[in-house]
Amino acid sequence: MPLMMSEEGFENDESDYHTLPRARITRRKRGLEWFVCGGWKYFCTSCCDWLINICQRKKELKARTVWLGCPEKCEEKHPRNSIKNQKYNIFTFIPGVLYEQFKFFLNLYFLVVSCSQFVPALKIGYLYTYWAPLGFVLAVTITREAIDEFRRFQRDKEVNSQLYSKLTVRGKVQVKSSDIQVGDLIIVEKNQRIPSDMVFLRTSEKAGSCFIRTDQLDGETDWKLKVAVSCTQRLPALGDLFSIIAYVYAQKPQLDIHSFEGTFTREDSDPPVHESLSIENTLWASTVVASGTVIGVVIYTGKETRSVMNTSNPKNKVGLLDLELNQLTKALFLALVVLSVVMVTLQGFAGPWYRNLFRFLLLFSYIIPISLRVNLDMGKAAYGWMIMKDENIPGTVVRTSTIPEELGRLVYLLTDKTGTLTQNEMIFKRLHLGTVSYGTDTMDEIQNHLLNSYSQVHTQASGNNSSSTPPRKSQSLAPKVRKSVSSRIHEAVKAIALCHNVTPVYEARAGITGETEFGEADQDFSDENRTYQASSPDEVALVQWTESVGLTLVSRDLTSMQLKTPGGQVLTYCILQMFPFTSESKRMGIIVKDESTAEITFYMKGADVAMSTIVQYNDWLEEECGNMAREGLRTLVVAKRALTEEQYQDFESRYSQAKLSIHDRTLKVAAVVESLEREMELLCLTGVEDQLQADVRPTLEMLRNAGIKIWMLTGDKLETATCIAKSSHLVSRTQDIHIFRPVTSRGEAHLELNAFRRKHDCALVISGDSLEVCLKYYEHELVELACQCPAVVCCRCSPTQKAHIVTLLRQHTGKRTCAIGDGGNDVSMIQAADCGIGIEGKEGKQASLAADFSITQFRHIGRLLMVHGRNSYKRSAALGQFVMHRGLIISTMQAVFSSVFYFASVPLYQGFLMVGVFIMILDEVSAWFANVIWVVLDLSFSVYELSCLYATIYTMFPVFSLVLDQDVKPEMAILYPELYKELTKGRSLSFKTFFIWVLISIYQGGILMYGALVLFDSEFVHVVAISFTALILTELLMVALTIRTWHWLMVMAEFLSLGCYVASLAFLNEYFDVAFITTVTFLWKVSAITVVSCLPLYILKYLKRKLSPPSYSKLTS
Fold it and tell me: What PANTHER family does the entry give (predicted)?
């Protein structure tokens, strides 16, 4: 094992991991074998990438200093603030679309064959017989691409033309979004999209903060609280922003949407004012202002904004079935060349043999039928229509009609969590105090305890209203006594009601106007008019629960919050410090001061792994956390610590100094906060349930039984993701979970991978940061190990990381991937997957519009894959092979005909009459050979009219009716998802099935042609009627042989085609002898040839079904 080594050995030999061999390195091909087996493609791609990098060198991203309202002071040129989602421009559209079409061998072959008909010496038939199908396909493709491109252009133009108010020295001016520059002061109204990345300077809200909606950036539906820079918020008027000299120092543009480091400096004050900037002071592009009016200074524009950097360019998706047919087309072309060379060789290379070779290539060109692409495209359109009309999955939309077969070939499903697997609606389920636990059915007890506790406090307060608060020292020095259950509940509920980042919002009632819709102190704090907003739904669920038991959060701003007790009394608390949740700390805290008692308390809550070392010793926390996790609940540990005024002042000075640091700010701030996190009093353990979407558990189980491996990629916290993985049964209750420890270096990644390799049959949970480190050094090894896991959960993933994981899976496994999500942060992942599915949900329609398929609920994916994926793949495989069989059989007849008549390179039907005349006079006029053969060729063009009739009117409807065939009923496919596993093996369309069809075509073509030649009498023209009629009947019978479940439209297509042929005989006098085809002799000869060509195949099919029936036939029986 390349990664297996002891920790001691690793520490002693640091150079070891620099020379670690890659996994599977022994299986790599070298030299000529590598070049032939795909190395040439890698070589060409590398060269192209190198040339592109030379021509388009990316500008190095740097940190910047941005002066307020002075774009002209920018030292460097920054990109335009325009959004561009178009794939082409006016110059690259036609070349780009044509390249996408002709990069496949099938289309390129048709193009070369069609172009060859412009050469007189190579001309075989009429030009329209070649150019019409190819032109039709190209016209449809170009039109479709043009419409899509025009729609993208209109959407981009609409976004780039949105008007915003720009603040200048002369006042407000209107400016287009695309004309915004770095350094501009932009005013954004409520419900308006933020046009670029900005630092938040001012707001119309009195609290100095506002809410923004980030669902199109990070996929989270909860509003985020943003805080204005205090220095600019305190300015008396808006115009005063130009009366100060200030600048923002911003870090270089980067992908991470959850972090930002910068400083705000005002130079014209004495001393200069320095204020640290973090993520809470930023307004990222593509988010929406949810409250008030905001003013910000632009720091990043265009391609440097977070939203654009996390968005990947859409790519043209090609289905695996199309790639497989492309390979079969190459095999057919090879057979075509070999057959033509054999014919020329048997001619003895007489005369202009190279010209005869090209003519044979054109004569046998029906081996690769030009109607293959048309039939498949029409079939795909039919599958899309059937999916959208399925009443069992209402609202489903097919946006990419070229890859419905991909739904039947999926091996990996990568899903978002929030809004996809879950409803993102939290419900408080459990409160544990160590000795007593309360569930949903005992919440009334908590309510009673709380009511009694606050009535006692109120009575004591009213009795001692003239006395002051007892000294803090006497309280702290008092002997510890066991608290009553009532007092413990009181402390726990109060801690939950205070330790959060929730803000109550009061919507404006009808008839009330004003600048702000947010409740102030003199507004109506009625329960009906109040909603809660927070950065996490967990927070909202906790505050809603405290309201339900009697302690209500009624008001909050940056400096204070108010709670209403069960008795109606309002308690006011000053917010001294806030410590927001981070993925590294896994906890959040708040320091508040009770205005009535002047008590300062530090409250903290977080994940059990982070809090277990902070709280005082206890013997129940770990066990109860495990119990709640097994129930699928998201747990939070709540603790507190009382602080004296001296302790807090000392902490505040150190904390303020750490926040102003430019280098290692995060580490310094964390170190200061950790000084408070010691010996905290454990108050309670809470359990919150995230409700799953309808039927998520049975759907995931169905997908697992179908052999699909499911990975969950989420931007949420590790603990949350793990809980949902358990509650949704993505990870079974009995299955072990390996949580990948945070790693920051190559050495740590090496050791952790070694530890993971020793685990067997366990689910993997890994964070985005650790994933990034491992992929940097051990990409192949990590992917190889992860693919062996029954389930993988990646948490704290950015949109770019999600797309990168999808790409890695496709590259390393070669299997088909599907990504499903519902938010704007899932768009990159959806576009990177072989098949992208979007869900229309609370997070908007961005994912739905960018996806290949759009559904309304996650549970619909089961029927979409098991039923429609199966039918689309099976039907396209049968249709493609049958169309190739249709071309092969007529090419076989052409080969037999040419071999019988001295290997002449002339077409079959109409042309063979001239050949017959030529053969009869050959002995007498052998000297005229060269002249006669060219006369024959000139008179034989009309054969292609028969060929076109054969491939369109006579056989098109029955063959195309295969799109209605199904081997398993929908109910059976859903009841037995194990049937899906066979589809991923690709057995319905493989070289094995292809060669079987080739053998059938050679057998039937030979029987039809030799039978017609043997059974004709003196009239040679009767060969046309006998062979062509037998050919039509054989094709109709072969369609009937291929069909597994009959549909009334199939029966109609069979009889309609037969009727069309019979009716057309009266109008085809130049091809058929009407007197002969009405005789009994004609009928028995045609019947005999048809029976000999089809009966053995029917017998073989019957024997195969009896001796080796397919798995689905066992179920249906």
Answer: PHOSPHOLIPID-TRANSPORTING ATPASE IIB-RELATED, PROBABLE PHOSPHOLIPID-TRANSPORTING ATPASE
- Whether residue 422 contacts residue 724, with contact meaning beta carbons closer than 8 Å, is answered with yes
Identify whether residues 930 and 1042 lie together within a single domain: yes
Clarify whether residues 743 and 820 are in a common domain: yes
In sequence order, what are the beta bridge partners of 638? 605, 684
User: Of the candidates 247, 311, 245, which has an alpha carbon nearest to the alpha carbon of residue 284?
Assistant: 311
Find the largest Cα–Cα distance for the chain: 140
Supply the CATH number for residue 556's domain: 3.40.1110.10
Tokens 């001619």: give the residue.
347
Q: Are 819 and 407 in contact (CB under 8 A)?
A: no
The residues near 767 (Cβ < 8 Å, ≥ 6 apart) are: 583, 718, 740, 742, 794, 795, 796
In a domain, 155, yes or no: no
**Any known ligand binding at 938?**
no
- Whether 215 is catalytic is no
For residues 888 and 1002, give the distance between their C-alpha atoms in angstroms, rounded to a whole number.
7
Alpha-carbon separation of residue 436 from 446, 624, 625 (angstroms) = 11, 11, 14
pLDDT tens readout for residues 83-115: 887 778 888 888 888 888 888 787 888 888 888
Together in a domain, 974 and 1003: yes
Is the backbone peptide bond immediately before 2 cis, with ω within 30 degrees of 0?
no
Element (H, E) at 266: strand 262-266
Residues 333 and 356 in one domain: yes
Question: Which residue do the tokens 């990948």 mark?
Answer: 740
User: Where is the domain boundary, 835, 855, 875?
Assistant: 855
243 three-state secondary structure: coil
Overall pTM surpassing 0.85 (yes/no): no
Does the annotation flag 418 for ligand binding?
Answer: yes
With respect to residue 139, please indicate whether it lies within any of the assigned structural domains.
no
Q: How far from 787 is each of 711, 764, 812, CA to CA, in Å? A: 10, 10, 10
For residue 301, say whether it is annotated as part of any ligand binding site.
no
Catalytic residue among 215, 218, 222, 416: 416
> In whole angstroms, what is the distance from residue 554 CA to residue 531 CA?
10
- Out of 689, 707, 728, a domain closes at 689
Does some domain include residue 126? no
Please tell me whether residues 750 and 834 are part of one structural domain. yes
CATH value at residue 266: 2.70.150.10
Assigned domain for 118 exists: no
Q: Is the pLDDT of residue 924 over 60?
A: no
Q: Is 759 annotated as a binding residue?
A: no
Residue 484 is given by DSSP the state P
In a shared domain, residues 184 and 297? yes
776 known member of a binding site? no
Sheet holding 185-188, edge to edge: 171-176, 163-168, 185-188, 294-300, 197-203, 282-283
CATH code of the domain covering residue 719: 3.40.50.1000
Residue percentage of the chain with pLDDT more than 90: 23
Spatial separation of the C-alpha atoms in residues 33 and 39, rounded to whole Å = 8
d(CA 361, CA 367) in angstroms, rounded, equals 10
Per DSSP, the three-state class of 673 is: helix
pLDDT for the residue 942: 37
- Please give the tally of structural domains in the chain: 4
Tell me which residue of 588, 612, 619 sits closest to 602, measured CA to CA: 588
The candidate with the shortest Cα–Cα distance to 408, out of 961, 832, 987, 864, is 864
H helices within 192-285, ranges in order?
Answer: 215-218, 230-233
Q: How far apart are the first and last CA of the chain?
A: 48
Q: Consult the annotation and say whether 826 binds a ligand.
A: yes
pLDDT given for residue 920 in this prediction? 27
Q: Is 417 annotated as a binding residue?
A: yes
581 is in an annotated binding site: yes
- Average pLDDT over the chain, rounded to whole? 80
In the chain, the amino acid numbered 1000 is: I
Please tell me whether 29 is known to bind a ligand: no
Q: What is the mean pLDDT of residues 570-578?
A: 92
- pLDDT of 373-389, one tens digit each? 778 888 888 899 999 99
Between CA 713 and CA 796 the distance in angstroms is 8
Give the domain range for residue 770: 412-421+693-855
